[in-house]
Design goal:
By secondary structure, the protein is an alpha/beta fold. The chain has one domain: Rossmann fold (3-Layer(aba) Sandwich), CATH 3.40.50. About 40% of the residues lie in helices and about 20% in strands. It is built from 9 helices and 8 strands. A hairpin with a 2-residue loop joins strand 4 and strand 5. Helix 1 runs antiparallel to helix 2 and helix 2 packs antiparallel against helix 3. The longest helix is centred in the last third of the chain and has 15 residues.
Length: about 210
C-alpha cells in the first residue's frame, strides 16, 4: 500500500453494509433465525465472539458454495458508503475493512465499494459445500485491533490519524487503539464507549470527521 495521510478502518456487517452476512448464508441452510439470535448476542458482547462464531459457522455445514451468488445478490451497501470512501480518497486517506465476516463475500463487495484493503475470516469448503468450520485463525476483537495497527504501520500513519468505525462489541478493541472511535448503527455498549456516536445510518455524515 502507498503512504497515506490517514487511515479509516470499517467493520463490514451492519456498518459498511446493512446486512449480517452470516445470517444470509444461514438462510441458505434454513437456519437464519437461529443464527440471527446468536449473532445479536455476540454483537451485544454477551458471549465470546470466537466461540459464538464457531457455533454459528457449524450451523452452515452443507451449504453449497453456489449459494454465495444468492447471498451476494442480497447485499445492501449502507447509505453514504460510496460518498464517504470517495472523500477518504480525495483527502489522501486509505479505506480499510476488517470483519468477523467472510472473505468469500467481502472479496466481491469491498472492491465494488472502493475499499483499498480488507481482512476477514474464511470458510472451509469440501466437495463444493461448507464444512461448518472456520479455515484459519478467527478475526476477533484482538484481530481487528491488530489489523488496524499493522495497516497504520505499513502506511506510515500514526495511530492518532486513524479512525475506526463499528457497531458491535467485537469492534471495541480497534476503536480503543484508533485515534478516533466512531459508533455507527451501534449497540448500546458500543455507543457508551465510543468517542463519537453517529446519529443516523448514513456514512456520508462521517465526512466532516476526516482529517
Amino acid at each position: 500500500m502507498p503512504d497515506a495521510r490517514f487511515l479509516v478502518v470499517f467493520d463490514a456487517d451492519s456498518t459498511l453494509i446493512r446486512n449480517e452476512v452470516i445470517e444470509l448464508i444461514a438462510d441458505e441452510a434454513g437456519r437464519g433465525p437461529e443464527v440471527a439470535a446468536a449473532t445479536e448476542a455476540a454483537m451485544r458482547g454477551e458471549v465470546d465472539f470466537a466461540t459464538s462464531l464457531r457455533s454459528r459457522v457449524a450451523a452452515l455445514r452443507g451449504v453449497p458454495v453456489a449459494g454465495f451468488a444468492r447471498v451476494l445478490a442480497r447485499i445492501e451497501p449502507t447509505p453514504g458508503v460510496r460518498e464517504l470512501i470517495a472523500a477518504i480518497h480525495d483527502r489522501g486517506g486509505i479505506a480499510a475493512v476488517v470483519s468477523g465476516g467472510f472473505h468469500e463475500i467481502l472479496d466481491t463487495v469491498a472492491p465494488q465499494l472502493g475499499v483499498d484493503v480488507w481482512r476477514a475470516n474464511r470458510l472451509a469448503v469440501q466437495d463444493g459445500a461448507l464444512t461448518g468450520v472456520v479455515d484459519g485463525e478467527i478475526v476477533d476483537a484482538e484481530g481487528k485491533a491488530a489489523a488496524l495497527t499493522a495497516w497504520a504501520a505499513e502506511l506510515g500513519v500514526p495511530l492518532r490519524r486513524t479512525i475506526a468505525v463499528g457497531d458491535g462489541a467485537n469492534d471495541l478493541r480497534m476503536m480503543a487503539v484508533a485515534g478516533l472511535g466512531v459508533a455507527f448503527n451501534a449497540k448500546p455498549a458500543v455507543r457508551r464507549q465510543a468517542d463519537i456516536v453517529a446519529a443516523r445510518v448514513d456514512l456520508a455524515e462521517l465526512i466532516p470527521l476526516l482529517p
